[in-house]
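Appendix B, record 7
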Amino acid sequence: MNIIEKIIANHSKQAKVHPGDIVDVFIDTRAARDFGGANVVKNLLDNGLSIADPEKTIFTFDCNPGGSDQKYAANQHYCRQFARENGIRIYDVDSGIGTHLAIDKGLVWPGSTFVSTDSHANIMGAIASFGQGMGDQDIAAAWAKGAVWFKVPPSVRINLKGKRPAQLTAKDIVLNLLSIFGANKLLGCSVEFYGEAVDELTLAERITIASMGTEMGVIILLFPTSQSLLLEIKQLTGHDYAPMNADEDAVYEQQFDLDIEKFVVMVARPGHPHDDVDIREVPSQKIDSGFIGSCTNGRIEDLRQAAAVLKDRKVAPGVVLKIVPSTDAIWKQAMEEGLIRIFKDAGAMVSNAGCAGCAAGQVGQNGPGEVTISTGNRNFEGKQGKGQVYLASPAVVAASVVAGYITTPDLIPEKPVLFTSTVKAAFKPVAGEGKIKKEKPVVVEGNVWIIPKDDIDTDMIFHNRYLTITDIREMGQYTFDNLKGFEDFAKKAKPGDLVITQKNFGAGSSRQQAVDCFLSLGISCILAESYGAIYERNAINAALPVLTYKPGVIEEAGIVNGDRVVIHFTEGTLTNIRLQKTVKINKFYDAQLAIYQNGGLL
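Structure tokens (predicted):
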């Protein structure tokens, strides 16, 4: 077996598992964050469920550790009260990013399993652990049962050949991978890395690469354990762990040989993490701000990389630099090493540990028209604010804020480009309670909305500024209001309508609201070529009918926007009433049907 199959088999009482098998997977550590935690608790209480094992259950408050948002503060306090009553550990606002804490404190280890409301929980692939981001219902089920159902993914092997170029950072490596594979070429796969350059990666570098697996559309990016990695983990946790590697005769669906010597320093252009180009293709692109941090680049090595560039230099006038270490321990280490002094002397703002701008709950947000260069993992429109976001390594971000434009450390000019521009955005999210329940037929008929786009992410479906909403009845009005061309969808859609779209629908965040907003509107079905892995689970668990079709089927049926169609979930058919044309689509699989007929996972 390969790594993912070994871990799942070991946690599902199976001697062997194969791609496509659906099994209940025991979860070693079950986490919820501050923005999702309140909904997890609400799901448990609404369904009369208790905690299976408080010792394996944790809260991590990393989205808004500053408590600057009243609704975050309310949710955090709500979770604290629940934790006190149930003996659950909290890594509170002084701790840092939950996924990093899990690694550093030994809550995960090679071969272990971990779930969280954080869509980047697959960062655990850095240490050959199986981590998954999941929606509120999945996490509630894991807390109550100790296990969740999971479909064994196909595995892909990537061999990085050659010697790693000296100037190539881990962030550059993953941006090069994104430029090759995009957001959906490896959709739903588990990916393993091999090669001399891979063996030499530090824990921090593996974390950087693994943390962007979600942006590639994969289930997880897995690194086999090396002796140096096991030593790093022991130094952090004080524990010895056995190696976790694939068998020599492990089976992979695909293998790719890539020459790492051809990789270049890259930036991701605004809008998509996979829109990556050689940094030389964005010459002298002026910036308003820079951000260094997130679960992708908030380790001590990342801060050292930035400090090496910023030492004895100043952030350009009119440019803002925000730095957020990933954990409190790393913050303190940066202080002891003098890095914080370097940052402050350079003119940076250094905040307490957490997710920062990535989660829209701390520092790092930008305003309309603002151009930011960031070490984050996502630059979806609206994700880190209302401006434009380029993604790059800590070294490039540091060099760019000194220059006033995007550049590399070796090309910093003697004098920075001068300019000023600041705009603030105002957000007025709301909150509430309630849930809509509807009958669940296996045949639906309705008018079609065709949305001919790939990689529609969850920020386009349901923007993160509405994440504190818990009343499903309020969610529908915000559906697609961040998707260009479909901002008025919620006003025009009618109950019973269907959505037909393309590849990788629901990419990105683990937010349940991106599913529930369709239930709120009464949308009867979504049909896509493929889905983001977390989104598909969330939809199935919420009893929102989601089905897939093979390329060419919609054209074969002659469907145009507004047509009336009939979809049969269990037979796998789609009928265009106007043309009386029936085609085959992929039907519900058994686990999906069982959850659907149950009215949802819980």
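Remarks on this record: The domain at 443-597 is CATH 3.20.19.10 (Aconitase; domain 4). The chain has 21 helices and 25 strands.
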